[in-house]
Amino acid sequence: MEIRICFFWFLGLLQYYAIFVQPSATTTNGGPVINVTKHISFTNFNLDDPRVISDVKLLGSAKLSVENGAIQIPDESSSSDVFDLKHQAGRAIYSSPVRLFDPGTQTPASFQTTFAFQFSNNSSNLINHGGSGLTFIIVPDEFTVGRPGPWLGMLNDACQEDYKAVAIEFDTRQNPQFGDPNDNHVGINLGTIVSNITIDASDFGVFLHDGSVHRAWIKYDGPKRWMEIHLGSDGHDDFPSKQIFSGPLDLAPHLNEYMFVGFSASTGNITQIHKVLSWNFSSNSQAFLRFPSDETCENKIFLQKSDSVQSSTIQKNKKSHKEPPSGFLIFVTVAVIALAITIGFFCSRRRRGSRNHDNSKLTDKTDRPRPPNKPRRFTFSEISAATRGFSEAEILGSDARGMYYRGKLPNGCQVAIKRLSPEFLNSQQGLDKRRILKEIGAMSRVRHPNLVPIRGWCHDSREMMIVYDFYTNGSLDKWLFGVGVLPWTRRFRVINDVAEALSFLHSKQLAHKNMKTSSVFLDVSFRAVVGDFGMVLAATESKRFEAAVSQTADVFEFGIFVLEVVSGRGRLDSEVNREERDLVDFAWRMHMKNEKAKVVDPRMGSLVNLEQAIRVLDIGLLCTLNESKGRPNMGEVVEFLSMDRPIPELPASRPMALFPYNSATGLCSGYSCGPFK
């Protein structure tokens, strides 16, 4: 009863303060309206201009072309291989954010931009044009690069629900799954890759993929929520005459106060060079200044004009401010007393309740705030909700250790979840749960560009799961053995990336212990990241020994991994004849016959660098040697791949009892290659 009285008394004081005290104690926050403007101008993108270097930020495959003085996505000068330009994505943005939204009035800024751009195929052998398109983008950060192909480098579908973005796309590929009308259209995209508004450029006599230089002009009136788009051939006039769109458009829900502006582009199965030759941008937004307070410099200077004026002003200020502070102080005093009484009643009731429950269990400790990217413990209910109750539709794959699921966290980000099987946890080869938790803790602290980050884990009496980042391009085995052919340049890059990851793990006295193509994933730029690793801590002498043994096993497995990547086939292939079924045995026999070119994947055709591929093949064979016969460590392998160190000469013939290799499982056993789980 007393608490209720205090509560209503406190509400009454708040109402009194709001009606009588607040108006006299505060000043108006409104002020004069000012214009916040921004102007960006690049007549070209020559590297001789220091503004280009400092003000244009390049991400992904975006480059500055020295020959054309343009932004170029992708950079054809970096590779002579047309296939190496496939599935590329890049962004070029202005390095400083621009104010594009007034949160006070919820009004978008007005802006206009014009830019000259050109699409061209980098090879006359390509029959199909387009791949995939260019966008003018407004994005919230300067770090993200979207997916290649139909995503145009604009969005990454792993985390896009709360990703505010606006794009005007100039698309030269028809993607029916995104509602594209044809391969020559302009789209307005608001927070999604599916265009909210689509315009057929052919209706206006514009063909984006004809190789000519086009100019776009985009104007947006923020207060009126009205957009106009003009498109035509580039000339000396900055204003193209053909208006392809004019209509209402509200950008407010898709803007933060400050955003980054620029361009993104991508390629898919068909390559295309996207160039931005010039760019002008200007914006105008309104902001409100607050009225100056009595403590501004202007007021102090005014008070110093004369003693009489100073005296009268001081007396006037004392009178004018005497009542509001006193009313305010009375209110604060009474409010504090009421609040103290309320807290006192509440605490006394809590103490009485705690005496009645002396034997109850202590509540769990409140989790401390954690950095946003720091791995954390997930509850079983969180994982279950993310995977829709471990739905079969969310299964990504499985192995001897457990099942992989795709999950979606409440913030919209996709994750990969490894659910360890009871058989693995209870097997003699499996580790006890305390040991696994310890290893997961060690795994979560390891950071390397070529290692899959761990988001967290889940552990209760029934389950043990590990939560990883999700890679939409999937695992390497699906690209290597599935539909399509990975070009040699990408395969060589993947081998280098995996070698760097293993070398880093070994330098930390850790080991992977599960090295295979299904443990390697490809990011949006098709760079390799290694996941699904189980490490060994080097806390004691026995664990140091176990780590050393597991590291030699990693090298052996890396050797087989290299053979698989070079040959484009699995270590045991039932579809070939018996003599070639065992990949390691087949590769050694081809080495003995000096016919190692037969091991190289013939599907890559004449575009493969055969000399480089055979050198890499030799490195793979070297890694499958018995440890006592010259098997290198991963640090040496990295040096071999970077050409910093000559490769030791391989034995002319395959050594007898090279390793206890089990052709039925594809694994080796014993300390010559290390234990495998």
From TrEMBL:
Any Gene Ontology biological process: defense response
One Pfam family cited in the UniProt record for this chain: PK_Tyr_Ser-Thr
Gene3D superfamilies given in the database record: 2.60.120.200, Phosphorylase Kinase, domain 1, Transferase(Phosphotransferase) domain 1
Bilayer-spanning residue ranges: 327-347
Keyword Coiled coil appears in the UniProt entry: no
Any single GO CC term annotated in Swiss-Prot or TrEMBL for this entry: membrane
Protein kinase domain span: 390-641
Membrane-related topology note: Single-pass type I membrane protein
Disordered, as annotated region: 352-377
Main location: membrane
Ranges of Basic and acidic residues composition bias in the record: 355-370
Keywords: ATP-binding, Lectin, Membrane, Nucleotide-binding, Receptor, Signal, Transmembrane, Transmembrane helix
Entry annotated with the keyword Nuclease: no
Coiled coil: none
Subcellular location: Membrane
Region forming the signal peptide: 1-26
InterPro entries to which the protein is assigned, alphabetical: ConA-like_dom_sf, Kinase-like_dom_sf, L-type_Lectin-RKs, Legume_lectin_dom, Prot_kinase_dom, Ser-Thr/Tyr_kinase_cat_dom
A Gene Ontology molecular function term of the record: carbohydrate binding
Family from the record: In the C-terminal section; belongs to the protein kinase superfamily. Ser/Thr protein kinase family. In the N-terminal section; belongs to the leguminous lectin family.
Listed name of the protein: Protein kinase domain-containing protein
